[in-house]
């Protein structure tokens, strides 16, 4: 009948919308996408709340077993739950594609995602440039395309939202090579790691091009956000060097590099500052 | 006790989250901000759904009567409802400020807003540049700062979300001058009007600077979105010239100017195209 793609919002089982909850209750089968983001509660809490079994859909399943997920969807409703908003991730594009091929209507139910909830830090959403992703560096792989994007945003004085890497159900190179389905523990990038990687790349770029205007430095004002929308949400503003030392607690973390702030934005961000004197020294603020 | 600022999402009374609904039910007084956006249902439907009276808070009230809204909030809960997400608009900044002064805790409850729900058009949220606002032109006032912002986005191949003007409870110049509290009917900018204003400015800029690369032209691919998240949502892609002639029906409308599209983005957008041949001729698509 229908494939519902339902956004769960950011925190716990009660962030689903009333419309979304009604849709879940109408479904024969309920899948939870659990590899691009997480709630603060496990699937057991969702199951109790919905009064239904919830099947964890990992990347393998979503990418390779769309037909299993969509089985009988011509005659029963199926729910595919996504943390945040259905369109925040592209991971279920194939699933939607397959449903369309099978003439199964796809109904998305929207919700908050970090892309709009980040507004809570005081930097207005319409003053952001392109969003960047920061992935875990390895010894041999340090993708740094975020630097050029931040440079473009900063040149036109815009803020940059940095989405931090999540590694769920990854195999070690050894296990991958041997075809062993043994998975590493989940890893969620902390703001500290993100800042350290940002500064590593800034140093490398400064060494390579000493005359270029840097996209950002350790004195750039940024805002770290942990567990947005949760009761224990933590928002701290400061220079990158300051934020590298702040303990933000458990996942999920996000980071915003501030461009030039309107004075009304600066007023809100300053209230989150770890060191207000340092904030006043380093913030770029416009008075109109 | 608490001032809740609760996002209502985009469509009707059931787009509130379960958490938001519980918060409303705990409140002694419930206000609805009704001048920066609207739902498809009136306050009566909300009142029935909540089992509570809902007071419409217009701009005057929010800006001048914060203390009325916050009356007794030290001892009872108060809800301030906002269409979309609490941080999409800045209109209630003063209210939050006043609550903070009075030591009343402010608890925001997130929801979807057009800033993330626009992802449904197939253009990925992380490929957007700065969001612009398009306001109703008058004979003598044609603010065109959107042009330069779109130019910056388009130069780095990003998409641009255009938020379209809403005029609620505005007074005519005559009534304003005479101090008569008589208000004009609400006006919501259509995609057609937005396109017409965009093209008017493009023509003016091209005449003034004939050698400059235009930020966009009537052949630029764009996506019009009406009533996002509602059952009768309408999404149509085409050149600006094509979209100017499409009937999108009732409010609210939004418009996205496409930058260079990834081929997977283009595939989704093409499915919305009013004329697929024209889309293929004008779309800028990258293959990687």
UniProtKB/TrEMBL annotation, chains A, B:
Pathway(s) it belongs to: Protein modification; peptidyl-diphthamide biosynthesis
Q: Which UniProt keywords apply?
A: Methyltransferase, S-adenosyl-L-methionine, Transferase
List the Pfam families: TP_methylase (PF00590)
| Positions of S-adenosyl-L-methionine binding | 10, 85, 88, 113-114, 164, 228, 253
InterPro entries, per the entry: 4pyrrol_Mease, 4pyrrol_Methylase_sf, 4pyrrole_Mease_sub1, 4pyrrole_Mease_sub2, Dphthn_synthase
| GO molecular function per UniProt | diphthine methyl ester synthase activity
Ranges of residues in domain Tetrapyrrole methylase: 3-243
Q: Which SUPFAM superfamilies match?
A: Tetrapyrrole methylase (SSF53790)
Which transformation does this protein catalyse, written as a reaction?
2-[(3S)-amino-3-carboxypropyl]-L-histidyl-[translation elongation factor 2] + 4 S-adenosyl-L-methionine = diphthine methyl ester-[translation elongation factor 2] + 4 S-adenosyl-L-homocysteine + 3 H(+)
For biological process, the GO terms are: methylation; protein histidyl modification to diphthamide
Answer whether the UniProt record assigns the keyword Hydrolase to this protein: no
Domain of life from the UniProt record: Eukaryota
* E.C. numbers: 2.1.1.314
Q: What does this protein do?
A: S-adenosyl-L-methionine-dependent methyltransferase that catalyzes four methylations of the modified target histidine residue in translation elongation factor 2 (EF-2), to form an intermediate called diphthine methyl ester. The four successive methylation reactions represent the second step of diphthamide biosynthesis.
Name the PANTHER family on file. Answer: DIPHTHINE METHYL ESTER SYNTHASE, DIPHTHINE SYNTHASE
Protein family per UniProt = Belongs to the diphthine synthase family.
The entry's protein name is: diphthine methyl ester synthase
Naturally occurring in which organism (per UniProt) = Geranomyces variabilis
């Amino acid at each position: 009948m229908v494939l519902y793609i339902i956004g769960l919002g950011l925190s716990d089982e009660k962030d689903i919308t009333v419309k979304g909850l009604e849709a879940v209750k109408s479904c024969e089968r309920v899948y939870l996408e659990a590899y691009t983001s997480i709630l603060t509660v496990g699937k057991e809490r969702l199951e109790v709340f919905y009064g239904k079994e919830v099947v964890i859909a990992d990347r393998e399943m979503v990418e390779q077993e769309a037909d299993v997920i969509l089985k009988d969807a011509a005659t029963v409703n199926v729910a595919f739950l996504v943390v945040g908003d259905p369109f925040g991730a592209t991971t279920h594009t194939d699933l939607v594609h397959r449903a369309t091929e099978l003439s199964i209507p796809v109904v998305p139910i929207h919700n908050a995602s970090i892309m709009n909830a980040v507004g809570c830090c005081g930097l207005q959403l319409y003053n952001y440039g392109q969003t960047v992703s920061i992935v875990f560096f390895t010894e041999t792989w340090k993708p740094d395309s975020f630097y050029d994007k931040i440079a473009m945003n900063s040149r036109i004085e815009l803020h940059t939202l940095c989405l931090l890497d999540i590694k769920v159900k990854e195999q070690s190179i050894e296990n991958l090579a041997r075809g062993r389905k043994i998975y590493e523990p989940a890893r969620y990038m902390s703001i500290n790691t993100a800042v350290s990687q940002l500064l590593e790349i800034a140093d490398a770029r400064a060494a390579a091009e000493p005359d270029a205007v840097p996209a950002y430095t350790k004195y750039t004002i940024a805002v770290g956000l942990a567990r947005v929308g949760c009761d224990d949400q933590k928002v701290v503003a400061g220079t990158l060097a300051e934020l590298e030392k702040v303990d933000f607690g458990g996942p999920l973390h996000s980071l915003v590099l501030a461009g030039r702030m309107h004075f009304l934005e600066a007023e809100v961000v300053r209230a989150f500052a770890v060191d207000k004197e340092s904030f006043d020294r380093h913030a770029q603020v416009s008075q109109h």
